[in-house]
Amino acid sequence: DAKTTQPTSMDCAEGRAANLPCNHSTISGNEYVYWYRQIHSQGPQYIIHGLKNNETNEMASLIITEDRKSSTLILPHATLRDTAVYYCIVRVLASGNTPLVFGKGTRLSVIA
Amino acid sequence: GAVVSQHPSRVICKSGTSVKIECRSLDFQATTMFWYRQFPKQSLMLMATSNEGSKATYEQGVEKDKFLINHASLTLSTLTVTSAHPEDSSFYICSARYTGLNTEAFFGQGTRLTVV
User: Fold this and answer.
1) Is B6 part of the contact surface with chain A (CB cutoff 8 Å)?
2) CA A20, CA A81: separation in Å to the nearest integer?
3) pLDDT on residue B104
4) Rounded-to-integer distance, Cα A95 and Cα B9, Å
């Protein structure tokens, strides 16, 4: 799986959009971009994933650049409950018997 | 989304004793489950892959005789920390995925183990 680079930490004001970047310059054509987050003392939670088109769900939007070498996770209206570590993971199309490998992620602090 | 339930959420045990942690997929069958360990302020580290009906596959550096994994059914995997020591104190997390391509993983809520 391709390596990802994320900032160590970010702050965001409550109610504002949180934009979390991820670089994956060595991504292959069949690798997807996944985002998970981990709130303190809980298991990770799936957020969103995409291949090359932008994706949106009830939690967030995922913007993938045209060359697919980077992406941005957008939380449109951050709340205090969005404070968590956010992990960007790039992986090939895989079956259910392959694990996720986590990097260090970005610690997002949403501030009132 | 699918639910993975982990029990207990928190356990304190004495040094030298064993502790069993359960991981259940509540509304789907998982032929494979994964066990992770997380130390404070660090990321999740994969310990082992648990396969239903067969032996687990352990990551390098993880002692298979210390961390016993049993995956007796399609909805239950257990991790037993044997002869626990204070350095085994950590946050243990299980994960399961639907069988099939490109499906997201679901995680248990984690178990905080403290060995005193």
Assistant:
1) yes
2) 16
3) 74
4) 29
* C-beta atoms surrounding B85 within 10 Å: 11
Question: Would you call B4 and A103 a contact, using CB atoms and an 8 Å cutoff?
Answer: no
DSSP state of B59: P
The string of DSSP letters for A65-81 reads -TTSSEEEEEETT--GG
For chain B positions 37-76, those within 8 Å of chain A (CB to CB) are 43-46, 49, 51
Instruction: Verify whether the Cβ–Cβ distance A100 to B93 is below 8 Å.
Output: no
Q: What confidence category does residue B99 fall into, taking pLDDT thresholds of 50, 70 and 90?
A: low
In the prediction, which pLDDT does A37 show?
Answer: 97
User: Chain B contact for A8, CB < 8 A?
Assistant: no
Element (H, E) at A47: strand A45-50
What is the number of alpha carbons within 13 Å of residue A29 lying toward its C-beta?
0
C-alpha B31/C-alpha B103 separation (Å) is 14
A3 touches chain B (CB under 8 A): no
* Chain B CB within 8 Å of residue A52 CB: no
Better-scored residue on pLDDT, B74 or B16: B16
| pLDDT tens digits, B23-63 | 999 888 888 899 999 999 999 999 999 888 888 999 999 99
Q: Which of A95, A104, A107 to mutate to test the interface with B (most CBs of B within 10 A)?
A: A95
Say if the Cβ atoms of B108 and A43 lie within 8 Å. yes
Question: CA distances (Å), A65 to each of A27, A34, A50, A84, A92, in order?
Answer: 12, 14, 11, 24, 18
